[in-house]
Amino acid sequence: MKKSKLGTIPVSTRTTPLNDYKWTLEAETTEITKEKTLIINVYLKNNQDLNYRVFLIKDDYITQDFQSSVPVWRTGRLVHYVIYDWWNRNNKDVYMEEKFKDIVNEFIGKKDDDDAINIISKYQDEILSEITLKKEKRVTDPIDKKMEEIKELPKKFNDWLENDVFIKSRYIYYQYQNKVNMQGYCTHCKKDVTVYKPKHNGNGICPECGSNIIYKSIGKSTKVQDERRAAVFQKTSDGFVVRYFYLCKSYGKNYKNPYMRVDEVYRDFYNKNLHIEAYVYDLFKNKYTRWIRGGEVHYSNAFYNVYPHNINSAIKDTKLKYSEVGALAGNKIDFRFNIDAFIRNYKNGAVYLEHFIKVRLFNLAKDFSNRYTNDEDINQSGKNLNAVLGIQNDDLKILRKANVTLDGLRLFKIARKQGKRLTAEQLAEMIELYDVRKFEKILKYAPIIKALRYLREQPDYVSEKEIIYSDYLDSCITLKQDIKNSFVLFPKDLKMAHDVNTELINEIKNKEEYKKHNTKYAAIKRMSKELNNLYYYDDNKFLIRAPEDAAEIVKEGQSLHHCVGGGEYSERMANKSIVILFLRDKQNPQTSYYTLEIDRKTNTIKQCHGYKNQDSDKQRIDSFLKKFKREKLEVLDIKKAV
């Protein structure tokens, strides 16, 4: 509606007599705008001057607000300004003459017996819906046009999902029987098989198709869900699109027919220069789900399996055509990488990714492609691959044979600085078996070859050997032990040496904590003797005594893993509102067993807890506690308490 023309329409003079109604409405029509226009004049109470006037035409409406010194245009509907209880027709909210409704119905072009304001409201709702739809279509139509370029998924896509993406989602469901051989069903080859001594959740091999499988006992396994991410490249008119999928394969009672959920969640359209338009399948205007424009970085750290068979044809006319991304995607089964990061980095000049892939350094390409900034681990201006990687002579053969990772490359270069060159087998072993990043800390103290040999010699029951060794070396530095001594650097029993050092460090920390606690709550030590006079109790099995000082309360909490070691209990005891007592087994009087909290006002036991508050054997001390209450607490003169 043209507000400039509407503003020229003279303001009508009120024709309705003044009254006590909250609102008075008058209606008139005009064609001054060359289109029939309904005008609703709104007066507040008995005002002679106009408060609002609402203009309605066939497909639009607007309100002129006269409340301020200068009229203001507003887009709200009439019911936003004229607020009244339309359920109660006999009230004195709104006054309208009989002809008001006739004028409204004549303008709309149909007879409606509803309340006049509701008639106007419905009319405005219809207009608003049409306006909103037109606005939305201006947004959605170009998106829908863009989506028309999407082609059918490749014919072999589902087979690829089964044989590559979900290669580890293969099971043999078996019916447990107390027998050596049991009957089962392979979810991959879909055949009944006989399996030998299967174990629920154990690994095995299908005797029929040779697949690596996981055994599932039919009685124990009620629901299995395997989730994956996958992506597909497809050609478009001016580039290519990468389509991203969330996948979920569910095995339930009907494990012979698992349900495969395939949800397409993102679509990234790239033009020939790799400029991106990102779309996400999500809520539009909080109304319904459809394709909408999305942020450019909506899965920045996500790794996807990528359908490899059509990538080269999809990207052949773009700046990505020499990137070798197709070879990266298809280098081995179940290989995942960050596609979005790969394309961004390649677009920004990371051509070394292409060179890594060409010499089959696939893990290195994967690790470097997941970076959005330049990395100090490589020299991007290097004239050849050795210069880029910072390696020497024929080192590349070793790195390629080991399919080195970024962390592995760092270790290899550290070993070189130590005058050692790792073999491909050693490098592959470290990458496969250890947290390679921990080795960087280890190598500050130990030569890499000796460290590797030392860890290899550790017994199999020691898990996460490199982490334990790294922590042990840190503890040696903290304790100022002579790490240059080979007996310290390579202890005979790593696990024991690690645990001993950990205890030593904890003991040092505890001594400091105990000292602070005793200083803060010195009153507890002063009252210890008199508390024992009041509360000490024993029989032939157990004893109850008071803490020697505040530090002993902390030790009690640490030993039993409950909250009495916190400052709150010590503070309350020092303030004489509670008493903390220790219950001990007489055969082990120095070992924490149960802790009691006594209410000083009532002289009753408020709490009695053992290890982690689990109190699994509390019945063992039950009769002793009853005697303690009867013979000690109930006869104690509270007034004589400390």
Short descriptors:
disordered C terminus, 6-stranded mixed sheet, 36% helix, single chain, 642 residues, 4 domains, 7-stranded mixed sheet, 23 strands, alpha+beta, extended
SSE topology:
Layout: H1 3-6, E1 23-30, E2 37-44, E3 52-56, E4 61-65, E5 72-74, E6 94-96, H2 98-108, H3 116-147, H4 157-165, E7 171-174, E8 181-186, E9 191-196, E10 203-205, E11 212-217, E12 224-236, E13 239-251, E14 259-271, E15 276-284, E16 288-293, E17 304-306, H5 311-315, H6 325-329, E18 336-337, H7 339-347, H8 352-358, H9 362-369, H10 385-389, H11 395-402, H12 406-417, H13 424-433, H14 436-442, H15 448-456, H16 465-478, H17 486-489, H18 494-520, H19 522-535, E19 537-538, E20 542-545, H20 550-560, H21 567-574, E21 578-585, E22 594-599, E23 604-609, H22 619-633
Parallel strand pairs: 1-6, 7-11, 12-17
Antiparallel strand pairs: 1-2, 2-3, 3-4, 4-5, 7-8, 8-9, 10-11, 12-13, 13-14, 14-15, 15-16, 17-18, 19-20, 20-21, 21-22, 22-23
Describe what this molecule looks like in 3D.
The chain has 642 residues and is an alpha+beta fold. The chain has four domains: 3-130, no CATH class; 160-328, no CATH class; 336-494, no CATH class; 521-640, Aminopeptidase (3-Layer(aba) Sandwich). It contains 22 helices and 23 strands. The chain has a seven-stranded mixed beta sheet with strand order 16-15-14-13-12-17-18. β12 (224-236) and β13 (239-251) form a beta hairpin. α11 (395-402) packs parallel to α13 and α12 (406-417) packs parallel to α14. The chain is extended. It starts with a helix and ends in a 9-residue tail after the last helix. Residues 638-642 have low confidence and may be disordered.
